[in-house]
Every structure is written in C-alpha cells, then in structure tokens.
Amino acid sequence: MEQIKVDLQERSYPIYLGENIIPKLARDLATKYEGRQIIIVSNDEIFTYYGKELLDELTSCDIITEIIPTGEEYKTFHMAEQILSKMIRARFNRDALLIALGGGVVGDLAGFVASIYQRGIDFIQIPTTLLATVDSSVGGKVAVNHTLGKNLIGSFYQPKEVWIDVKVLHTLPEREWKAGLAEVIKYGVIWDKELYEFLEENSTDLTKDNLNLAQKIISRSCRIKAEVVSKDEREENLRAILNFGHTFGHALESATGYNYYRHGEAVAIGMVMAGKLALEIGMWNINEYQKLKNLLVKVGLPIDFPSEISREQIYTNLFLDKKIKDKKLIFILPQSLGQVEIVKNVNIEIVKELIQKFRA
Ligand SMILES: NC(=O)c1ccc[n+]([C@@H]2O[C@H](COP(=O)([O-])OP(=O)(O)OC[C@H]3O[C@@H](n4cnc5c(N)ncnc54)[C@H](O)[C@@H]3O)[C@@H](O)[C@H]2O)c1
Ligand SMILES: O=C(O)C(=O)C[C@@H](O)[C@H](O)[C@H](O)COP(=O)(O)O
Ligand SMILES: [Zn+2]
Question: Which residues of this UniProt protein bind Zn(2+) (predicted)?
C-alpha cells in the first residue's frame, strides 16, 4: 500500500492508496475506535457497493449511517442540518468519528458537518470517484453550495486519514471517470508538464479499468495537491492555482442549477475559457491552447457550452467567486503547459466580451 503524507504540522495526515485496502484499514480503525461512536455518510448506490465491507469490520464500534440523496443539488446547508440532527438525536459526542464514503459531494458535505458538529469532530475520507480520489478528499476544503453560488458556506478542515481504494473505480460510471480526468489534466497544466505529456501519450489507455494507470495518475495528482496545500493551506496565495478553470466553471455550474454539468465537465469548459482569456491578453500561445482543447476532447470532456445557457448569468455569477480581493476578480491563467500565473488586473470588459462571444 502506497502512503502519501499531507504535511501540515499538527494537522498532517496520511493518504493510503492501493487496491482492496478498505478491509485492512477498517480493521485497524475498529481497534482504535472500539466502543466509540461512528457515523458513515454515503449515497444509496455507493453504500450498497462498499458499505458492507466497512460495517463487517467495524462491529466493535457504535455505528449509525446516513444515506443522502445523490447529486450536486443536495450539497446544501439543509442536507448538512439533516445529518447534524441525526447525530444529535443519537447523542453523538465530541470524540465521535465521521466517515465520508462517496464522491466529492458526500466528501464536501460530510466534511463540512464534521467541521461544525460540536465545533469539530474527527473525519476520514473514503473517496469513490476519480475526482474525489485526485482532488476533493485531499486538502480540507469542505463546503456546501448556496443557490446563488458554489461552495459559499464552508470551512478549511483537514481529515485525519484518506483511504483511496482503486477497486471502487470498477463500478464508477464512464461519465464520472471522464469528469475526474478534468482535474487530473488541471494538475498537468498548473504544475507538471511531464504529467501533462504523459496524459497526452496515454490518452487512449486512460480507461477506468486500467487500475495500474489509474493508480499512477491518482498518486501523482495527490502528491501535487499535498505539496501545494502544505505550502498554503488556507489559500492565501499559491493554493489559488488549484482553482484553474474554476472561476468560469463554478459560474457555469451555478447558472445551470448544479444539475446539468458534472463538476469536472464544468471545470473542463472553464479551463478552456481561462485559456482563451490568457490567449487574448497575450499571455499564452495558440499551439498550447489547441493542445489543451485536443486532450480534453480526446478523453471525452466538453470544451464549449450550448447557447441556451445564459451568458449574462455566467458573467453575474463570476462576482461570487471566493478569490475576489479588493472587489476585483482574480484569474488563474496558463503561461505555458505546467505553469500558471495568478492574475489580478484583468480588464473586466475583455472578460465580459469573452463570455458573450465564447466559442472554443
Ligand atoms: N473539496 C475540494 O477540494 C473539491 C475538489 C474538487 C471537487 N470538489 C467538489 O466535488 C463535487 C464533485 O464530486 P464528484 O465528481 O465526485 O461527484 P459526485 O460526488 O456527485 O459523484 C458522482 C456520481 O457518481 C456516483 N458514484 C460515486 N462513486 C461511485 C462508484 N465507485 N461507483 C458507482 N457510482 C459512484 C455518485 O453516486 C454520483 O452519482 C463537487 O461538489 C465539487 O465542488 C471539491
Ligand atoms: O483544493 C482547492 O483549493 C481547489 O481549488 C480544488 C478545486 O478542484 C475544488 O473544486 C474546490 O472545491 C474549489 O474550491 P473553491 O474555493 O473555489 O470553492
Ligand atoms: Zn474542482
């Protein structure tokens, strides 16, 4: 089993990565948490697949489960309150543990609950989508959406452990696998040209049943995220680069009611929009912009959005972005593959026009 450390002094934690690792990790946990309260938060389908092996190993603990409806539209404060109520009714104490078993929606929502229940209890992330393994389970951004904007209510709250068992990919729908690849491609663009080239060279072999390759890209992605987060946990500066593609992507997700695009798909389109902005202000070159579009298309991701989606709404939503400083939008823009810049003073008229006329 591979182990990757997220180095954050007293908040440091391990990411365990391997195939079929859940039973052993759960057995160790059962010894540590004998007799203690644990809540497992999950979705129906995921719990059916992977809940039993957890429950079977945790028989010595005092377990409750909360199964939440599936979908980004349920990553809400209301749903968080529902989980909190269940824990209060079960008389959960501060030494209880929360386990988030699911994709990024479960992880963000359940992690947020862990961060506020009695001012914070321990939690473990068991990510089950590619996206959650490479991104959302690591780094401690936990949040719920508001109808007006993405992730507007949340905390920075690190898990105690992350368990990545690649076997979960076998049941993952194709569309979710592709959505996860968007965040992997993001790491290539923002940090690691070698990873980017590797993805290009292996684009046709990047299938979810190729577990060796999957583990390789998950490992590299987690290592990049761990490095960035350990340098800037609370996004004072560097961590903002992990938001490449998200300024436009989040605006698109909110404009479509959180149920049209998968997060990774919106990020794919957002990366192309950010790329185009970089081109227009002379920061990037057309060859690399084309390369990015080609790779996204090759792995089956969208790079454009249909005309029914309100461009005005996308523009308006930009102003709820959390990177805003001094009332100014901040964009993460590519300079070259493997390197981005945090850009503060983009002319807003260029942004407005880009959205109005956007064609990939
Ligand atoms: N906190 C962070 O740093 C961070 C990073 C990236 C994304 N996010 C958030 O993550 C969310 C998106 O997460 P997601 O893409 O994982 O989507 P998701 O959690 O909605 O999961 C996608 C779908 O896949 C199903 N599923 C999950 N695992 C499965 C499996 N192994 N087998 C079969 N079906 C499975 C789920 O039930 C769901 O229908 C967004 O809310 C996004 O904002 C957070
Ligand atoms: O971990 C981060 O930092 C990221 O930006 C990772 C993103 O992929 C992720 O979608 C995150 O939830 C976005 O955060 P937000 O602060 O823009 O809501
Ligand atoms: Zn993201």
Answer: 183, 246, 263
